[in-house]
Write a structure and sequence with these properties.
Blueprint lengths: L1 E6 L9 E6 L8 H10 L1 H9 L14 E5 L7 E6 L10 H18 L4 E4 L11 H18 L5 E6 L2 H18 L1
Parallel strand pairs: 1-6, 2-4, 2-5, 5-6
Antiparallel strand pairs: 3-4
Length: about 180
């Protein structure tokens, strides 16, 4: 079992599932969400449209996860996690962001997936402070692996140098605290 930090394009990874930093509609957007939709092709959007709306325009509430096929991606599945928009840290943002990681891992376990890749959820246009988000991503994934046997391989994907450094630093600090 391992957790690694990798820098590059999440859409190119050949893993069982990649996590999409989605919005509540699940119909695509900017950043990693748009990149995943473009790389997966029109089948992903069509499948997302088939998911039931919980309320108008919402297929997946903040902090929750929905699964679809990977379509044209190398990943077999896409787990769509809706992270919180950063306001001030006083509106359950840490718990909601943690839920994105934990619930994605729980869904991956339920689906019998061995490998999963996460982007830095909520760190783009949703404005979550990078260092705080990195600590949450690492804390949740490390805690998961302590008490679960799958997924065996967790990749935290950085789209730029700053994100890579923040995730790497959080992973080193967490592993040192646990050792």
């Amino acid at each position: 079992m391992k957790i690694e930090v990798w820098q590059g394009d999440i859409t190119t990874l050949a893993v069982d599932a990649i996590v999409n930093a989605a919005n509540e509609s699940l119909l695509g957007g900017g950043g990693v969400d748009g990149a995943i939709h473009r790389a997966a092709g029109p089948g992903l959007l069509a499948e997302c449209r088939q998911l039931p709306e919980i309320r108008p325009g919402v297929r997946c509430p903040t902090g929750e996860v929905r699964a679809t096929g990977g379509h044209l991606l190398k990943a077999r599945h896409v787990l769509h996690a809706v992270g919180p928009v950063w306001r001030d840290g006083q509106h359950d943002e840490p718990a909601l962001l943690g839920n994105c990681y934990w619930r994605s891992l729980a869904l991956a376990e339920q689906m019998g997936l061995q490998s999963i890749a996460f982007p830095a959820i909520s760190c783009g246009v949703y404005g979550y402070p990078l260092q705080q988000a990195a600590r949450i991503a690492v804390a949740e994934t490390v805690a998961w692996q302590k008490s679960h046997s799958v997924p065996k391989d967790i990749i935290l994907v950085a789209y730029n140098d700053a994100t890579f450094k923040a995730l790497q630093q959080a992973l080193v600090q967490t592993q040192a605290a646990v050792a």
